[in-house]
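Moderator note: this is an archived Q&A kept for reference. The question asked for a predicted structure of one protein chain; the sequence and the answer are reproduced below.
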Amino acid sequence: MGTSASDLHPTPTAIEWDHALIERYNVAGPRYTSYPTAVQFTETWQASDYQAALAASNTQAQPLSLYFHIPFCTTVCFYCGCNKLATKDTSLAAPYVDYLKQEMHLLTQWVDPQRPVEQLHWGGGTPTFLSHPQMQDLMHSTREHFNLRDDDQGDYSIEIDPREVDQTGLALLRHLGFNRVSLGVQDLDPQVQKAVNRIQPYEMTRDVLQSCRDLGFRSLNIDLIYGLPLQTLASFRQTLEQIIELNPDRLSIFNYAHLPERFKPQRRIRAEDLPSAPEKLAILEYSIKRLLEAGYVYIGMDHFARPDDTLAMAQREGWMHRNFQGYTTHANCDLLALGASSISQVGATYAQNHHKREAYESRIAAGEFATLRGLTLSAEDQLRRSLINQLICHFELDGDAFAAEHGIDFAEHFAAELGYLKQHQADGLLIRQGNKLQVTPAGRLLIRSICMVFDAYLDHSALQKAYSRII
């Protein structure tokens, strides 16, 4: 049977839900915010390696992306697996901000501070845990150390908890230069919120979102989670309708992975309260179909965006990228990450800071980088990183163009992988025409499975322990 042009280039938003294929391919696997994944980072890779990478990056003079990890929350959400400290003691933030400022000073000894900062992100934890003076102090110091844009054209974003911010705080964030906001919501059903210890009425989220619009934030993202305790398809339908009414520019619907042996707060969630596997998949299936119906573009995995959002534009035009912050429009930036557990990506290297806040602070206080581990990518690593990024962002790969760019024989170099993909082809997840690969609408939901074929490091016997399920 022949392959038509429409088969090779299906509608960008097209998604086909196939229960049998999802059941077959829904195994645990990486999210590919990096390749190689963090599992491959080694503690033999140290601060001196990071310093060398920073110095070398100056010769390329690429723009910078800055990430600040603020690991504090006033209350603990039982589903959370983030590196954070739940505390009411706001005094802990003051010394931490000072350590971030010291880390910035260390970085500018190695990286040219005149390189423009195209992207800035405060994540956590809850960055709005910081007091207003602390926020001002941190941003002022960032401007002193780095070349932040002053034309409001950079992508400067912050994660906020609607329970922890007011109109004055939002106005301050806008004044400091933030123009993008990500709101944690997770679910609007009161019973679900009580079960995960996150009471956040719809009206609170609505009012914060409207305030952000009134203040001129140009992109608003909302995070939801499916698979939480007491969730049902009926209850999540109501949540989704309310979220669609709020009309965020971007929307993420994450899969809750119940791993109480790894994340202590999850031990407060009763396994018997979790939706069944079929119910959980039904929630996701409905959510995807409803969001597409509402006009959102399926970006990939668990991300959606309005067609006029820059993320959707970047995907259409072929310049979307993926890194530790998820899908991004800044492929050309070196990512400098500050704070406990944060991961930098500079050229062909990854560097991760100490996970424990105390260890991070101790190293910085001693005037040293807080690097715990990292990795320098081999030429083969870089080749596969580029290939996986292309597939996970754009659902297609022109093997001939890729081969010309990287100086390889595509069919020969990836002979084993192309052989493994025959099963994906037979199952209708992928179309291959010569060296051109096109992920089908049925394959887009399972893109991680296709990318895993090109992962040279995967230990399939250990997947269940290291990663969450694909869906």
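Archived answer notes: The chain is about 40% helix and 20% strand.
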